[in-house]
Request: fold
Amino acid sequence: MKQIVITGLLFLFSVAAMGQQRDRAVEENIESRRIAYLTQSLQLTPSEAQDFWPLYNAYKKEQKALKEKHKDKAESKTKSLDTIFDQDAEYLALKKEYSYKIEKVIGTERTIKLLRSDRKFKEKLVRGLKEKRSRNRSGR
Reply:
């Protein structure tokens, strides 16, 4: 009986680990596509890229941390308008802080292009996911 339980638990853990690996692989694929898209869009020189990417990665890391911080509040049904506005203000403050830092590296015009390109990339990603879902549903 013990062996069956242990075997079952090992199976569950391995399935969970495979799911996490797949999620990580998907996340890494998206990030590499984002990097390629932004690199092409911004046309960074090697010198600019050396200064730009650490800033951009730090921004994304802090953005992810904010998202985690607000995760519990996002699931709350008693969320107030003030809470929503406060969270939006935190995201905006972070975006402004890093936009000004990045502007010093690549200039105003390309910083604006970065903000637009980042949004375009997300829109393309969402559109692609919707199309994939649609194809999967119609292919059944």
Q: What stands out?
A: The mean pLDDT is 85. Residues 42 and 110 are 6 Å apart (CA to CA). Residues 2-138 form one domain.
